[in-house]
Amino acid sequence: MGLAPVTATHTMAKDQKNAIRLAKARMEDANHSQTTLLASDEVINQPYFVYIINVLNREWFVEQPPLFSSYKIPACPKGQKFSWNKLGAFIMEPYTKPGTFDTFYTKVDGRKVATSLLNPSAFPGTVWESQLQNWDAPDQFGNNLNAFGVFWTLSDPNDPADAEALDEEVRIFKERSQRTLNELIRAAEQLAAQNDLKSISPLMHYAMDYFGKQAPWHMAAEHMVACPNCGDLVKDGIAYHKNSFGEKCIIDAKKYTAMIRAQKAAEAAAMEPEPELPPIPATMSSSVTMGGTPGTNTPVSATGSSSVNTTVSTSAEDDIVDQEPSQFKEPELATVAATPRKSAAKPKRPKYR
Fold first, then answer.
1. 216 and 144, same structural domain?
2. Residue 334: exposure state from Cβ atoms within 10 A (0-12, 13-18, ≥19)
3. Are 150 and 253 part of one and the same domain?
4. Tens of pLDDT, residues 199-225
5. What SS3 state is found at 88?
6. Contact 73/54 with Cβ under 8 angstroms?
């Protein structure tokens, strides 16, 4: 004889199914990406680029999450005017809507992003001249990269048409960086006079290395050795230097001789005249001399009298003389109108102060 079925003593709560659904949704978000990309923001056609220029031989790393966990600005190589990196005309800035776990993106002007990237204290505007202003803040010491010769520009380093404008911008910020480095040296001198050597920052030591200065409080970053001739401290591996008397002191004769020969060869190559073009071969000889009688082939001498020797033109020359002058006109080349560039693609160039 079987047992009687047990009567159910509980019922499912009304919101239990909804709680299970929400729990599965949260588990899915926790185990997988919570980022939601909008279809219209996945691909951006950049109309132009914002270039980050650095005029100093110092590398910079800027951390500004969530846009930049670590943005690298390369150092200017020795012998070059500047180094550069670039940003897009529009940057996708992430944001989260309240009450959701999804991440969305909005387009931000690349010039605003570059302004804040190089100087967090600056107003994030799009005006190029704003980089020349002092936006320093007490809690942002050393973060104003504009003061150290780092700036953004719309001038393309690879475009010869922008070379002149870019050179002027580089000149402006190179002078500004040198003023900043001189101010750091003066501040370091004051700290050294107060015997507060621990407050001298690495940037102050870099400024000393940049100008090649020496001081008791500054430790040179390069290996210095005593010159075997005069005893002055010089960089290791150089061919020659000028001693304290201003005289040229040769250390490595072979290296110095090779350098002088290479320099003279370069100067000689620069002084060589350009090769002349070969003369154009004359297909026909002219039989009329300046001052001849019109309509005849008889040349006239400098005294005005006719010359005894006359030259008879060939039949081909006669045919050419008989032709109308209009037949000798060069054909007009057909002009093709160039496709105009979109004026809204790239902002106008700034006016330098």
1. yes
2. exposed
3. no
4. 999 999 999 999 988 898 987 666 778
5. strand
6. yes
Tell me: do 256 and 135 sit in the same domain.
no
Provide φ and ψ at 106, rounded to 5°: -130, 150
16 lies in some domain? no
| First and final C-alpha spacing in the chain | 106
Q: Do 138 and 214 share a domain, yes or no?
A: yes
Question: Alpha-carbon distance 32 to 193, whole Å?
Answer: 59
Question: What's at 197, amino acid-wise?
Answer: L
> Phi, psi at residue 107, to the nearest 5°?
-80, 135
> Is there a domain that residue 73 lies in?
yes
- The two structure tokens encoding residue 130: 């704003």
Copy the structure tokens of residue 63: 């951390």
d(C-alpha 249, C-alpha 246), whole Å? 9
Q: Is residue 272 within 8 Å of residue 263, measured between CB atoms?
A: no
HSE-up of 188 (CA within 13 Å, CB side)?
A: 23
Residue 32 token pair = 């997988």
Q: What is the count of structural domains for the chain?
A: 2
Residue at which a domain ends, from 235, 270, 305: 270
Query: The tokens 């033109």 sit on which residue?
Result: 313
Provide the domain limits for residue 238: 222-270
Place of tokens 């803040």: 137
Distance CA 16, CA 321 (A): 109
Q: At what angle do helices 202-211 and 163-193 cross, to 10 degrees?
A: 120
d(CA 293, CA 301): 11
pLDDT tens across the length of the chain (353 residues): 556 665 555 555 555 667 777 777 776 666 665 555 444 444 568 889 999 999 999 999 999 888 888 899 999 998 899 999 999 999 988 888 888 788 888 889 999 999 999 998 888 889 999 898 887 766 666 789 999 999 999 999 999 999 999 999 999 999 999 999 999 999 999 999 999 999 999 999 999 999 988 898 987 666 778 888 888 888 788 888 888 788 889 888 888 898 888 888 888 888 877 677 677 766 544 444 444 444 444 444 444 444 444 444 444 444 444 444 444 454 454 444 445 444 455 676 655 54
Q: Which tokens in the block code for residue 229?
A: 């001739």
Do 162 and 241 reside in the same domain of the chain? no
